[in-house]
Amino acid sequence: MASAGPKTGGLPSGFIPISDIVQHSRAQPGTLVSVIGLVTDCQLPMPTSGKDHKCALTLCDLSTNDVSDGIVVNIFRPEAAMPRVGYADVVVVHLVKVQRYKTSFLSLITNYQTKIRVYSASKIPRPPNSAVSALIKEGDKFEPSEEINRYVPRLCHDMNKDSIMPSEAEFQQRASASLNVKPKFCLLSDVNDGKFCDLVVRVCRDPYDHGDKVTLYVSDYTENSSFFNFSLESIKDLVSRRGDPYGYTGATNGAVEESGKPVWVGPLGKRAVQITAFEPHAGYVREHVTAGTWISLRNVQIKYGHDSQNLEGKLRGDQDFPNKINVSLVDIEADADGVDQRAREAARVKEAVRRWRQYDAEKKAQLKQLKAAEAAGVKRKAAMPAEAMGESFCKNSSEKEAKTKAAVKRARKKAAQRGETALKRQQPCSPQAEPNNTNNHGDVSAPTRQIEVQLNPHVKCENHSSAPTSHIATIIAPSYHLTSINNEQVNVRLPFINAKYKSYVRVVDFHPPSLTQFAVGRNKPKYGDILLSDDDNSSDDEESATPDQDATWEWRFSLQLEDASPSPSPQRVWVVVDNAEGQQLTGLDAADLRHDVDTLSNLHDRMAILWGNLGEVKDKAATKKENNGRVAALGGLRAPPPDSSDGEDEEPALANMPFACYIKQYGVPFQRGVEAGAQPVQQWTRVFALTGTQIQR
């Protein structure tokens, strides 16, 4: 086993160069080897759950002199038998076992045959003298040979310490810091922003490779309210973009692979979290991790994602130990009995597996109940006459379209007779609003009259049963603050207040006028881009520029809402719908609607549930306006409509149903224009936004 040459400096017989282990893998796990190396890092002895302590030494020799790759020696012994090492000491380790534990890198671990002796760096003479005088008396009953004693000075003085060694102060600081290790393991239900933690989790889908990093979705089957709420719809959209995370190649049925294997094997709800693993962890994930794998993650940083809505995890490299891998596979069948660290981890895995199996059993039971209910519903439908099935049970799209047109015509007649605009297709539902006890500041004060309307059953809002309802007039009324100026009571009008209102409304207009403009694209900033300041007015330019293929798409549109209760002059308010509320309202992720036909079609269907025939009304109005413009251009001449038009030239009446929603008020800063050279004056404008509302199919 002896080696000699310029790389090893003529190792003593029976010893191997460290590079044979860490670089060339010539020593397989389980074999016993002997090494001599210079100490470049030390983790001081720490108690384990058993009788032994543990310390770890990083050793380098002449074979790793230029690449700074060392080998970690894990030493398990009683504290009194631990070797005492210092900065740049030389350590002789005889008969130590090669292992691969948790990572793809090999390391060494002591056993009952292992012998360790230490040479003090400050006493090692220059070659060709013997280093026997530098041998520390304390240690194992193993006397190094004269060949070893003469090799130690060559190793100590020929090493390129500047490239592989930290400073002595840094070495001591690292050693002291190794004692300040706090238990980091926690469940996903207990993680929060800014926390570093160790996790035992199951991978929910195959990792996505970004090149320099890998994205994982993992779960330990506990729930966290700050996680993204995974639904069947969002998972289908997520898994349909395997290899195409932004969906540019078009959506596919991503629920299962072509082989029939499910792609998403994790839980629904807020039980899974996204983890981004950077190198060197990403390389290990690519080779060893797939959907359904149980893994251990160490030192994961928890923080809010770019949307500031949901928690995510980051697994970064270690600057002190750049080759350290913090991802490892775990054996769900491992024995949890014992007293060492592996037994504790096995117990955690078994508890996580128990939660997984419990969740899986509950899911299967619920699916069984749903299938039974669906089968019973099919039987009831088959027994019903076709006339009783109603619009939602139309046999095909043409029949459904015919029924929709008939319903619109009936709505026109009712509107002409009663002066109403609500399309009453459902059984009356008359929620009684509780007295509105909020004034303009959201405080308890004046009551509001009861609202009795029939609501759209397919539009739901947050379930706050005690929340009072407010009319639009109350919501848009200005707010005042009573204060004292020069000892006089003065009501100061506030530019805005932060408030949230529940109201019964219907949609009477929307903007932009085309559904294809309901989503906007934002180009991702590229490396080297100059960040624009607040004075650059960059937002408008960024949105008006043509989005590139890496653009991210967000919902952004506005709805004009009107009081649901009949009134000679109903109040109206424009509310904005941002990306988060747009996702909740529609149940869809924003996309390039000019090219994504499927998403556009789904959006059209869902908004029709919300606003009825409003799109048709707007189209008719736009057509009429265009025709009137042509008539004016022709001097007012207009041909009579053909006999077959049957009144199609009439302007249709708006036919939709009111719904319950929440409206929030807040302020947005802007700078009023001033004369050149003067300081800009910041002011606030009041904005209303839709929130907590969802269209249910």
Automatic annotation (TrEMBL):
Iron keyword on record: no
Keywords per UniProt: Chromosome, DNA-binding, Nucleus, Telomere
Gene Ontology CC entries for this record: nuclear telomere cap complex
Entry's localization field: Chromosome, Telomere; Nucleus
One Gene Ontology term from the biological process aspect of the record: telomere capping
Main location: nucleus
Residues of the Telomeric single stranded DNA binding POT1/Cdc13 domain: 15-160
A Pfam family it matches: POT1
Ranges of biased composition (kind: Polar residues): 427-445
UniProt cross-references to InterPro entries, sorted A to Z: NA-bd_OB-fold, POT1, POT1PC, Telomer_end-bd_POT1/Cdc13
Annotated spans, Disordered: 412-445, 529-551, 633-652
Recorded GO MF terms: G-rich strand telomeric DNA binding; telomerase inhibitor activity
Biased composition (Acidic residues): 532-545
Family recorded in the similarity comment: Belongs to the telombin family.
Protein name: Protection of telomeres protein 1
Species this protein is from: Schizothecium vesticola
Lineage: Eukaryota, Fungi, Dikarya, Ascomycota, Pezizomycotina
